[in-house]
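User: structure tokens for this one?
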Amino acid sequence: MWDSKDAFNWVDDYFAHVRPYFDIREEDSLLIVLPNKAVKLNRTGFKVLRLLKDGGSITEIVEKLGGRSERRRELFYFLCDFRSMITGCLGEGGNRKAVDVVSNEESFNVLPVLSEIAVTYRCNLQCKFCYAACGCQKKSVSEMSTDEIIRILKIIRDEAKVPSVSFTGGEPLVRTDLEELVSSAREIGLRVNLISNGTLLAGSDRAERLRASGLNSAQISLEGPTAAVHDQLTAVAGSYEKTLEGVKALIKAGIHVHTNTTVNSVNAAHLVELVKLVARLGLKRMSMNMVIPAGSAADTGLQVSYSEVWSIIEPVRAEARRLGVEFMWYSPTPMCILNPLAEGLGNKSCAACDGLLSVAPNGDVLPCSSYPESVGNLLEKPFSEIWNSATALFFRRKKFTPDECAGCGDFAACTGACPLYWNVMGTAELAGITTDRRKHAFT
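Assistant:
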């Protein structure tokens, strides 16, 4: 334990291994476990992790403590809880000696935590729920050149202080300069993720080239356990088989890969079988999100409601646990209907102009990739001006929330879920909800 002479012997070797997987940001005293887990550090915690992140030794820290046993004990538990966060078993921090769980009225981050660049809206599929309506573009959207995207990457790292970027679309693999973009992002100091349908990796050496360029990970869209379900949603025959080939190519290339699935009315009944497919592929992680009623999905009848989504994903998570697959849930939900904290899904809230920096193919900053309202263009205006603009603050301060959310005790954690959902689906689900029905996050 903390009072033994060997209590800290593990620390230096451990940090030598995990340094690439976390970042420390001075601007808001934030610990970011890549790509998107963030916690606020107090002054002492920040100094400790800054020293260890920069290659310092735990011996330096322990020697400064001298014989102060109480401070030594606090340091030990702090480092143990840090290790738990890195390995993913910290949970929401309850019953942890070094973690205080508090409700913040405003965001604890002043800068974004993760970033994404849609390098194109072009796509070889025509997914019926595409947020960008890529398969049915009614007007062309200009695309940044290679040099312009590299300029944006530098802004992301140097001005926004974000440690990672995802290249998305559209289908990013339609760009022939993607490998150069990946390589440039790594040189700038960013962890790089690819969000793709995977089909263009089939029958080519593209996965190997991406690995050689420094790609860290990939998220591949897999919309059903069979061609019948998947291809119905992508509207392209044969896309299912090519997506599976793409996943296998990434695995062979040694790139960390997981699948993501958009839960909708077509695939909802097939998702437990999808977990079995993911396990057969040898993948250890999978994620899901609700279909967002935007882009192609705004009028297709694919939506599922907040009130019904838990009945869909609960058996999915149970099957994932049975098969040893980590299940990740991405969508924010109103806590009075589905409390993700109470159900062990983690804290989920709208990240628009808050935890997320989303960049469109022309350099526009969007609230999120599904919300086609420009906040400003990074090729034309400084990042700080855009990030602190009235429009950005409207989203960051959650001014979009339904009137029904006013005065809710859980609002600081919930923040009203997704504004795009309410815009299309209405707020009838919130009618008549009382405090007695709520599962409070902090009680």
